[in-house]
Amino acid sequence: MALPAIAIGTLSRICECNIETIRYYERIALMPRAERRGRYRTYAEPDIARLRFIKRARGLGFSIEEIRSLLDLSRSDPAASTQSCSDARQIAATNLLSVRARLDDLKRIEAALSASIAACDRDEFTGCPLLDALTGTEIEL
């Protein structure tokens, strides 16, 4: 049985997505413009599925444009599924490279913060090594 049309607040609760985020996705055409009943936006099951897809993709670090492409691929002709899968794989592979680069950055940041905190624990410094690192006078980040 299909759900009746639901309001944006209900969609927000079902998908655990901020109302302003839903409106933003509509403005940038990631979500279709909702039907209106008077002054109120109304949504249906396909909107729930689409918003969940978008949330999962955002959770995996895909950009808005990548999500737009993935949504297009998800709607493509089943006969072209091999090509769609190949295209989706390429988008995911590119995203994976980006994720790995961010992880490398986070590891570098972790090392710099660890060194700064460890320097704070040593008595040989005057002042604060962490604050000195942030002002550029001590530890290189």
Overview of this protein structure:
The chain has six helices and three strands. It is mainly alpha-helical. It has a domain at 1-59: Multidrug-efflux Transporter Regulator, Chain: A, Domain 2. It has a three-stranded antiparallel sheet. A hairpin with a 2-residue loop joins strand 2 and strand 3 (40-43). Helix 4 runs antiparallel to helix 5. The termini are far apart. The mean pLDDT is 88.
List the topology elements.
Blueprint: E1 6-7, H1 8-15, H2 19-27, E2 35-37, E3 40-43, H3 45-59, H4 64-74, H5 81-121, H6 129-135
Antiparallel strand pairs: 1-3, 2-3
Helix pairs in contact: 4-5
Keywords: DNA-binding
InterPro entries: DNA-bd_dom_put_sf, MerR-type_HTH_dom, MerR_fam
Protein name: MerR family mercuric resistance operon transcriptional regulator
Question: What's the short version?
Answer:
It contains six helices and three strands. The chain is mainly alpha-helical and 141 residues long. The chain has a domain at 1-59: Multidrug-efflux Transporter Regulator, Chain: A, Domain 2 (Orthogonal Bundle).
Labels describing this entry:
141 residues; mainly alpha; Multidrug-efflux Transporter Regulator, Chain: A, Domain 2; three-stranded antiparallel beta sheet; 6 helices; 3 strands; elongated; MerR family mercuric resistance operon transcriptional regulator; DNA-binding transcription factor activity
